Amino acid sequence: MSFQAPAFLLALLLVPLAALAYGAAQRRRRAAADAFASPAVRASALPRTPGWRRHAPIALYGLALAALAIALARPEATIAVPAEQATIVLAIDRSGSMRATDVKPTRLEAMQAAANRFLERIPRRVKVGAVAFNTKADVLEAPTTDRAPVRAAIEALTAGGGTATGDALDASLELIRRGGPDRPPAAVVLISDGKSTAGRDPVDAAREAADLGVPVYTVALGTPGATIVDAKGRTQPAPPDPDTLRAMAEASGGQSFAVEDADALNQVYERLGSQVATEHKPQEITAAFAGGALALVAGGALLSLHWFRRLV
Fold first, then answer.
1. Which of 137, 217, 248, 277 has its CB surrounded by the most CB atoms within 10 Å?
2. Contact at 8 Å (CB) between 276 and 88?
3. What pLDDT score was predicted for residue 149?
4. So what's the pLDDT on residue 47?
5. Top-confidence residue, 83 or 57
6. What pLDDT sits at residue 270?
């Protein structure tokens, strides 16, 4: 929480001062009672005291004073709101290991289905671009609000080749840079199923994304024991590399996910669809504190009237 006029927070000092004044008044009251009757006969000479009820309305008034002081300082809270003009780039691994069938029906087909759900979930005004990568990175579609060409480009992907994860992130960032220095918020969602085998170091590219203020959300797809059959009929291991993808996400300020089946992948993409299409903005919440102060004053007054037939 932050404040637009923090100097008014000095008014909070009135709360302990008021509490001290109230305590002094209570001590004077007890002293007057002691002077009127000795402790031995006070119980029969004086009416029964209301106990804690005497102090409850005053306590509510004190809380109301604190809430009013905070309201005068014009507090702000940072909340997530829909980023209607955000840019998201999907960076999609299409290396040969995406033919593995540990994620049904294949890793590539599961990714294509999840990407379609992602495109359906995010707000229409959010621009989405796509980059595909194997040994090299290719721009499939520049960021656009038209989902049809992005969806068609992703559905047309086939698997083959190595994995140039760092180059894919570079290409994604280049698409984002085209928005200029005053571009809207942007993020990259990168899905891969294997270790980077070509191009620049992916974690270095993620640090560059952090410098641009672009978080990278990574998804490691597949199971550790997965295999594929290469062009020569040989069985090759095809494990994912969640450690590198996690390091990329951490370096850029994003999040990492590791999934081993199509259902989990769908859930991640649905979650990302709402998460990356929001931005955090400060919103003034003065009215909440002012309303709270009014409610506390009203509560204290009602209790005092009910118990003592007076406001204080």
1. 248
2. yes
3. 93
4. 54
5. 57
6. 66
Q: Which residues of the chain form CATH 3.40.50.410?
A: 84-276
**pTM given for the model:** 0.62
